[in-house]
Amino acid sequence: MAGGSTKAVYAALFGNLGIAVTKFVAAAMTGSASMWAESYHSASDTANQILLLLGIRLSKKPETDLHQFGYGKSQFFWSFIVATMIFGISGILSLEQGFSSLLGEEHQFENPIINYIVLIIAAGFEGNALRIAISHFKKPIVKRGDKAGFSNLYKEFKNSKDTSILTVIVEDTAALLGIGVAAVGIFLTDITGNTQYDAISSIIIGALLMSFAFFLAKENRGLLLGESISDEQKKQILSLVNTIPEVHKVVTMKTMHLSPTTVIVGIEVNLIDGLDTDKIETITDEIEQQIMTVLPRSKKEYIFVEIER
After folding, report:
1. Per the database entry, which stretches of residues form a coiled coil (predicted)?
2. Residue ranges of the alpha helices (H) in the chain?
3. Digits of tens for pLDDT over the chain (309 positions)?
4. CATH level 3 topology of 231-307
5. Residues 6+ apart with CB under 8 A from 183
6. What is the value of pTM for the model shown?
């Protein structure tokens, strides 16, 4: 899954870099406020991908005496920075551009055909990047033998702890919405000659960016604070552990994501009476194996089984 995340981020990076340069040139040539907003958007997206790649790289650092559970949360931290700093700044710049054009003197608006061409090209790049990112969620669905329909894709998206791929999907979705808003504003200005439509489009794009930024910040905040595995995974683990004949009941289970795939698990179980030490050790190993069945990419040494006395 990590390789899929990196591929999706690189696809978004190179696509956004080319789009950003093209949009800035188009904005300078046409004077469109909404195209300036889209330029800020694509520039921030490009910077976003660089920070996401940095987070992925740092999260792979080995454990140290100071960070004994590794650096997996680096990915959550840099995704949070992307949401709060760059996405937010881009939104503010877009709002500022829109309001200054709306409340100030009528701004320059020339050669709208250039904007149309650039937006069509940008939509193609963003759509392809989104397709690559979504394919990341399709693989586990197909592997389970289910259909990769909207409901299953949404479920994977909702339960995913891979903040890099979540950020790419949110960015690309915001980008396509922004392109649509910009196109409408430019078209209305083109046919009416009223540049206020163009300015309003810039304001809407800014509001969209800030809304998506808030959503991403909220998701990453939860993971930084220590988010548990999904309810479905909890149910699977409890179901498997309870199938072990010697397990009377699961007393408590606590989990926390240390990275998108690595989880620390603490589970306390009550066993039937009359078991010797060797048998208890065998059952403990079996419980660990059952947990690893649900969390195959986690580490066995991060699973702690406690026997209720």
Report:
1. none
2. 2-30, 33-59, 74-81, 88-103, 112-143, 150-159, 163-192, 196-225, 231-242, 277-294
3. 455 678 888 888 888 898 999 999 998 998 888 888 889 888 888 988 999 999 999 999 999 999 999 999 999 999 999 888 887 788 898 898 889 888 876 667 778 899 999 999 999 988 988 888 888 878 777 777 778 778 888 888 888 888 888 888 888 899 899 999 999 999 999 999 888 999 999 999 999 989 988 988 998 999 999 999 999 999 999 999 999 999 999 999 999 999 988 999 999 999 999 899 999 999 999 999 999 999 988 888 899 999 987
4. Alpha-Beta Plaits (3.30.70)
5. 116, 119
6. 0.82
